[in-house]
Design brief:
By secondary structure, this protein is mostly helical. The protein contains four helices and three strands, in the order H-E-H-E-H-E-H.
Amino acid sequence: MIAEARAAVPTARCQAILDCGAAPGLAIAALQAGAEAVVVDAADPVLDKLDDIARQCGARLIRQRPLASLDLGNVDDPVQSAVTFVMASRG
């Protein structure tokens, strides 16, 4: 889905960030599966460990949710929603 949105608007800048809520284990699984970046609600010592794991996976740990974000949890057409979001973010 991210690839389709990026292909539809190749000039847009975006980063796919998986919001793992308060689940560090989910963040680790996502990083190992190839996620570009994750955001997690956790204490600093946990975030420090996740940051190290993210770097080892060639990814990023985001410690604070970006203001501009897209939640695909409750949309009918996630691909179109992603494309629309990316196009609006072109600035």
